[in-house]
Amino acid sequence: MTRPIIVALYAPADRPERFEKALDAGADAVIVDLEDAVTASRKDAAREALGEFAALWSARGEGAPAVQVRVNARGAAWHAADLAAVADLPTVFGVRLPKTQSADDVAAARAAAPGRDVHALLESALSIERAFEIAASGVAAISTGEADLRAELGVPAGSPGEAGLAWSRSRIVNAAAAAGLPAPLMAVHADVADLDGLEASCRSGRVLGFGGRTAVHPRQIAVIRRAFTPDAAEIARAQSIVDRVRSAAADGSGAFLLEDGTFIDVAMVRAAERVLAVAVS
Fold first, then answer.
1. What pLDDT is stored for residue 2 in this prediction?
2. Looking at the structure, do residues 163 and 251 belong to the same domain, yes or no?
3. How far is CA 145 from CA 36, 121, 124, 172, in A?
4. Sign, Cα dihedral of 171, 178, 79, 213
5. HSE of 147 in the Cβ direction (CA atoms, 13 Å)?
6. Which domain holds residue 104?
7. What is the pLDDT of residue 1?
């Protein structure tokens, strides 16, 4: 099973002095941002700095985090140049596609930067309605960008708006599962100082089926990882399910039962394997 991404850290592409810190912060993935974190006057400089980031990343070898580049959205003045710059990077560098509205947006990005994963961000009411269409379009993952979505839905910022996002979040999780994609990552928690609110939001998201979260500051990483990492009891139960299935297969038994009498089905085994994969990541 592919190593899951629990925490993905954003790093502004126009701040090369922060690249090494981002790579060493302990996130599972780094998202080099050409979009919201970069002002219009700095877009060209940010794009030019991608080569420096790629060199630093390559020097770290196998232990380096995964990398995605968030380009500017389709229709923006910088979109085509961003994708052309990404196309010159190693193919392990994925495209993070903001404001994805349709499967056609995904197809256009894949054509412009071929051979690499596309991670679609759904940030509008329309994209949420089209969640499965986008999830089934060949993307590697989907997730939400919630600042624009909150504004469109009239949902308050911060903790007061959490309840208003529950349906949209569940829609994303369900679409990803239906398309056979990994559990989505939650959107950033913009208040970097509010670590208690971040943890509460993460735990609510985990209950909904999210697999992790994006971060905008290294101090958020430990909180996110703790909230989305299985505890000892969850790990023990997952291990018992996997061990029981292996034992039954070895002795030819067809009885897939735990000691407490719980029947084990295929879905439970897959869920257990996901828990164990996260536990060792």
1. 61
2. no
3. 11, 6, 8, 11
4. positive
5. 7
6. 7-228
7. 46
Domain's final residue, options 209, 228, 247: 228
CA 274 to chain centre: 15
- Asked if 124 and 147 touch (Cβ cutoff 8 Å), the reply is no
Tokens of 190: 């913009």
> CA 118, CA 30: separation in Å to the nearest integer?
14
Q: Look at the pTM and tell me if it is higher than 0.70.
A: yes
* 272 and 204 both lie in a single domain: no
Examine residue 84 and state whether it is found in any structural domain, yes or no.
yes
Is there a domain that residue 2 lies in?
no
What DSSP string describes 191-247? -TT-HHHHHHHHHHHHHHT--EEEESSGGGHHHHHHHHS--HHHHHHHHHHHHHHHH
Provide the 3-class DSSP secondary structure of residue 122: strand
Q: 36 is written with which tokens?
A: 């919201």
